Protein 1
Amino acid sequence: MSNRIVVDPVTRIEGHLRIEAEIQDGKLVDAYSSGTMVRLIERILQGRDPRDAWAFVGRVCGVCTTVHSLASCRSVEDALGIVIPPNAEIVRNLMYCAQYMHDHVVHFYHLHALDWVDVVNALQADPKATSELAQSISNWPKSSPGYFSDLQKRVKGFVESGQLGIFTNGYWGHPAYKLPPEVNLIGLAHYLEALEWQKEMVKVHAIFGGKNPHPNYLVGGMACSIGLDDVSVINAERLAYIGRLFEEGKRFVEQVYIPDLLAIASFYKDWAAIGGGLGNYLVYGDLPTNGYNDPSSFLIPSGAILNKDISTVYDVDLREDAQVQEFISRSWYEYSEGDKAGLHPWKGETNVKYTGPKPPYEHLNVEEKYSYLKTPRWKGNAMEVGPLARMLVGYARGREDFKEVVDSALAKLDVPVTALFSTLGRTAARGLETQLIANWAMDFYDQLLTNIRNGDTRMADTSKFNPERWEASAQGVGHTEAPRGALAHWCVIKDQKLENYQLVVPTTWNASPRDPEGNPSAYESSLMDNTPIADPEQPLEILRTVHSFDPCLACAVHLYDEDGKQVNRVKVL
Amino acid sequence: MPTTSYPKLLVLGIGNLLMGDEGVGVHLAQRLAEQPLPSGIDVLDGGTGGFHLTNYFTSYPCLILIDATLDERPPGTIRLLEPRFSSDFPRSMSTHDIGLRDLLEGLQVMGQMPKVYLFAVSIAELQEMHIGLSPEVEKVMPELEERVKVLAGELVGKGVKV
């Protein structure tokens, strides 16, 4: 029997994302990933002042607002030859670290954990046993039997009332849930604590960026000013507050997120052999410690790995014509050079030509064009981007800090390094890099204080802010490692205006359709890699792998029988 | 006419400014931010903030949300709702609703849910990315602005003269 499954989730960057997959004998055998909403931010930016682009791109996505603004500033600075002052670099890095810690914790607890933690089953837990277990894995203070039993009582009311989606919309009781009730209860407790915690972490953005959401950036540096004794700017008191936010953030990551991640992972080791997919990984690099123009100073090193071979890391050059290219042979666009062409983003074209079925439709024609996402390739290869790619490239480059956190986690779980090439590996890598970032944030914070004490309060280089000082034409590329993966903006400036602007976002790398050779991208490839489906009515396993990429979406899952009829539709938070 | 009055409240416009009518809440917040309002009434352009907005929900006892909804009513239809659970929100809100729903569920479980009023503005469909409102939605902006200001004034006990 073959079942057609349609997963039709929504992402904030790309609009709607939909996956169509075939099940045969309890396994996924084929998968197609489609972006079903057109995204034409490129068109909005054409003809605009390059100095304003960061504010527009910051609105593309609600979760990654800061990373788009950062990539945009870097892109324009790169084109105009602007080098920002060291403090601006550090402030950008600190905002980046805060974004990362926030995003990864929220992703883990509020989107992904519920694929592994059965929150309704948590009501069966023994509070005393839960307390003992919690205390055996962490020093986190909220771990008494009374704490857990109070929580159970509170949640019981909500479960019985049936009014909250989290307790009514999941696949609770699904046979693929393997955790004992006590671990489920710890997961539920920390789901709630993480909600409380995350609202503090983003205050870093409000302080450095002037407001949140959508904090302020500035081409040439940062818009904030620093004066230790000045009440109207970022002063000693506010800096001390930021220091406390990062310290508390680090404590939460170390004492809650990481112990939970390892405890949960230890019950799901079978997922270390599921959902690996491509085995090709791409990282642009980020967190400069000696300026954006010195990639050797990046705390997150750039590089590419092919075919799971971590003995070789290839260098990546985003300027070279033949490295990053976007294809449209299976996407609803047209190129002036025809459907077979691959274009480097500086020469990128965004001309929509929809040839798909008229909505509402049951199935896409996946033999032809089936997505609004273009298909990016690196030297012709499909690549996975994101936390797993970053941890693997850092590890393969022999970086001690990467090796330490990775090897320690592998040892605790008693699995080999090859376990990383999987859905479980992707989810674990996200936690491990949060651990690294939380440590680095403290170093950046100390460095900022040292610079200020030494009298350096420069926050921006405005010498080239006036367009009269620009070349008649210029092009730049700004890259960052967004929480979800490698992100870059390519800009072409002519006569002081943006002539072309192309974003290649992480979800495009991971969720794009097949390329002209018919090779799948990361989502498609991962879903086709050994994914079991215990119950076609409740395809929890698909969600585990799709969510492991942090696609930032809620999924509406539609199930079809072999005749293509919809048999079930489940909304999953 | 609300019976309770609050010491302060937040008018929170949410939506994506780059997606035409989907940004109606943000457009309204930006217009209100340029006007003098009675003390106790704050205005925020919440953009596509999702989880980033938690702090605002826990630091105000009352919020007035303005958002777009795809509910097949004529574009520009304004409805005032008093949602208590995320399931009370219109089913099909715009692309940023996921984070907001998760956030509201969490606030509910934590017992920190403030009083929420929601002005839901019906829009035709998600449009190609552009900045600005359609004539249908632009036409109801004065009415929307007036209704938000009147409700906000009543809620902070300043009467209807705003």
Protein 2
Amino acid sequence: MATSSKTTFPFSLSETFRGGRRTYWSAGPPLLLVVVSSVVAISILLPLAYLLLRAAGAGDELWRLLLRPRSAVILFNSVALASAVTFSTIAIAVPLAWLVVRSDLPLRRLWTGLLIVPLAVPSYVGGFVLIGALGPRGMLQRLLEPLGVERLPEIYGFPGAWLALTLFTYPYVFLVVRAALQGMDRTLEEASRSLGQSGWTTFWRVTLPQLRPAMAAGGLLVALYTLSDFGAVSLLQFDTFTRVIYVHYQGSFDRHLAAGLALVLVCMTLLILVLEHWSRGRAHYHSGTGKGARSPRRVSLGRWRLPAFLLCASIVLFALVMPALTVSYWLLRSVALTANFSALPGLAWNSLWVSAAAGIAAVVLAVPVAYLTVRFPRRLTKPFEYAIYLGYGLPGIVIALSLVFFGANVAPFIYQTFFLLIAAYLIRFLPQAYGNARTSLLQVQPSLEEASRSLGRSWHGTLRTITLPLVRGGATAGGILVFVTTLKELPITLLLGPIGFKTLATEVWSLTAEGFFADAAPVIFVLLSVSLLPTLLFVGKEP
Amino acid sequence: MSINLFAIRCKNVTKRFGSVMAVDHVDLTVAPGEFLSLLGPSGCGKTTFLRLIAGFEVPDTGTIEIGDIRVVGPKRWILPERRRVGMVFQDYALFPHMTVAKNVAYGVRKWPDQRERVGNALRLVGLDSFRERMPHELSGGQQQRVALARALAPEPDVILLDEPFSNLDVALRARIRAETREILDRAGATVIFVTHDQEEALSLADRVAVMWDGRIVQVGEPEELYCNPASREVAEFVGSANFLSAMVTDGHAECALGRFAVNGAAKHGDLDLMFRPEDIALTIAPDGASRVVAATFYGHDSTVTIRLETGEHIQVRLLGAPLAPGTRVHCQVTAEPRTFSRSPQPASL
Amino acid sequence: MEPSYVYVNRRTLLKATLSLLPVGLGAACATGVSDPRGVAGKATVTLGSPSLTVYSGRNEQLVGPLLEQFWQDTGITIQVKYGGTAEIAATILEEGENSPADVFYGQDAGALGALQLENRLAALPDAILNAVELRFRSPQGQWVGTSGRARVVVYNTESVTPADLPPSILDFTAPTWKGRIGWAPTNGSFQAFVTAMRVTLGEDPTRAWLEGIKANEPKVYPKNTPTVQAAVDGEIAVGFVNHYYLFRIRAEQGNVPAENYFPPNGDLGSLINVAGAGVIAGSENQAAAEQFIAYLLSQHAQEYFATETYEYPLVSGVAAHPDLPALSDIQTPDIDLSDLADLRGTLELLQEVELI
């Protein structure tokens, strides 16, 4: 009886009752939370409004374009790529997360840091790297040439796009699953072992089902990222919906058709959200009290230590060492290194502060919204949740142009300011912080907050002293995701940044776009280092 | 300061979750210093009722008063944190990121005598030496006592306990229960204590309120509740009960165990008679019409199931070892039975 | 961060400064405000000096030093927003009347045409328009070409000898080229080339050619750079690209095994396409904006294009890179490169053949 999911807090009544104007039947969430969440949701819906406005001008041509047989193929491609990447990232990330959290694998912290960094590889760099390393006449082929290997099998098309996106997005799942494993109640596993199940069976039948909400949350980030990615699919020649949208911007400058196509992407995003919601199952509360948070008892790997090491090493090899080697090779083959190191500190600083600001702002906004959707009835808060994810499924160019439109015409005083730039980052990347905040809030038992209230603390006092300290780890992980993703963001930075504002990412793009690969190499290294530092700091500070 | 005749008074309190009536027009008054147990099967609404008092749920109708303050009523709502109600949760809800001392100090933060109160509360529960431990380093019983100390530290007028012993193992339970009662007595608080365990309720409480389907069906002292249950449900839930169908003629009810005078009931018609298992004595009789069909040994006593010649089954408690199944016995009733009107489907035990 | 801060590639700037003589229109139009800055890098804005906002779809690595030089030569503070040509054009369209941009400097004529079609460009004075041939500027007089590039066939010298190459680009439909071609159908330059083909040969032969190449299973690249790199790496034997990417890869990677092939005799394969600029309608800095475009057509800017970006200068009197065939030898079909109606037709054809 009185399950936690039915918990309602008559927060908003606090002050109104003194005046006696309202009756206590209208209990609901605190006004502040609703206002913050509404502002967030409405901002995120701006791009959708823009798309509807633009698509209205598209006319019959949109239907002709959508109804041609090729659209079905492209739609299928998008869905196939998104599903394949989602499944492969989960398949990679879950064992890795388990190894660094629950096993006695040596150097767990270092591995954790190294396994997160590939997130910072922009997909347009990742695409070049993959072609340069594994292409038909890439580095690997050159290594194998003495053995008589003339050409490697084709990397273009589905395999390349799938590989690139898997290698550079699995950290989304890794981080979320890792956090879930850390907060998981181990007594269930112990119960399973005591029922005579082997460690392996326990993992499959007890641990994995418990990880389902985390896998779904991480998988959602990957699926939507894949859907909206342009860099990797265009370089690796795989036709997806996002690529077609870009073609319409670039080829015909037709914003109306592109907007119509983007609306299809919005529908796909909604579909994926429904799927995720379904696969999440009934999100249960992990035990966040006492026993669950006990310091981990690590599983001894025994003879599995070598295979486990090889798994971690091979992922780091492909997702981190290979890009680093390829980029180094660009430097090596260059005859005229014109690299301009003097600009690098400035660029790094720009990247660092603007990404950090986005990461912090994302946490500050995501936690209240997550609090609302976790603690209050879903039928009221579901629209907020869906709204938050919509922006994430859209290509960056769509978000950027929609805010160019609103910024220049509705709010010129913030147009091309850092305020709008960071707001745009948030509109696009907030789900990364939200998903983490939500997962960690689910692990905080409502009874902890109730205990605090009954001990005389107000709802905000409770939030400050109980809820926030308990979700800090998860929320920070979300902030780091936003930070790293913002570091490599391109279209929004280019179009919405103040004039003359440049970051490491825009510099990498500017150099690689015109083939100055050698000049791009040091910038890419700085980009990776900048993303590694806070990540290691975060991992290192954990108990 | 006025002297109150009650510590808590609830009138006509109702709470509905969708189509489920969790708390259904409940009236209840608890005297200052009283230790009241709220007993009922799981899902009967007793935890919801507790949460209504604490302020974690908003009732649909009714008023609740704590001390001389009306905390809920038409156009009135006092926030949970202003009700001066201490609560001990079923899962204890200890703050996992704080030490034992910080947990206990949480409710008395910034009080001038904070240190003293934390020390007193911890001494009261006997955990003074565990101040710097983290909650996860404690055993279940210790966690329960920290939760108690935390609730007691601000000296609230009312302490609410939500099944605080259900997470403890059986061996520990009896001892912690007695300790808890002692601690609460020393603290002098008014206590409402929710449980589904009738033995717990009867042994600890000054008074027991039995809750059934969202309603309070009977309130009384443990003995009264046991001997004079107001309904079949109460009889069945509080202790075990044997029901035998009886035919009433001329103020006497005739059942398989004999003929008994009935007072106040109908002079004619069908009735159910209720016998407690310890109210029946057995004698071994090879020609007896009843037969032992099953037996369970508990150590200090045992329970045997008897098949009567009418085909009805009853349970009888014996001191010491049970009788072997198959033994023929003669039953004799040693106490007056209670009468209940005939239920649609007779209880088969 | 000061918004007017513009990073400058110091080496390139130095080189550019040394190689340029302060002559031409730019210097003539200089306002006379003395520039207090001695070195490149962070600039202090002199109060009262005109300030110009340029939206550049041309890459900073290519034109950054030139724009910096404009600042130094004229004293006009210049703020540049860099991005992809199409994205920048779309940005100006979305900004509408409120666009902060004074000048759009784009990579291809199509983007300029898109702005012209939506009345986002102002008319240019004849003095500027007349500096280039009619075929390299807007017939409506709203934009002007500033540098040109030729469509060429880049080939890998290890897998193809010049003798193997057919006289016309039309002949690459032959089965011998199966699996050896690379192209970028989504790229603007390629689409301009298809437009030219449609105008010159007609709809059906163009469709036949596209389908013929498609039947040869070409590799599809997103744009020119990776196509040329693929030819250099031997991933493909030939690629349909713009001429100057090979020069840039040579500059970085040395003597790579690839050459440009200009199909002879005015073949469609070596069509000239232009980068160009226009003044945004409603700009409050009309004069400075025109001065900027004039600067792009000045002799030293044109020389900069010839020597630094390996493009064709469009103003007479400035010689192209010695490795390139003369501009006058390349015939361009009589089409308006910025005519979006033509471009739409091309896109429809490409969609019909399922190339985009």
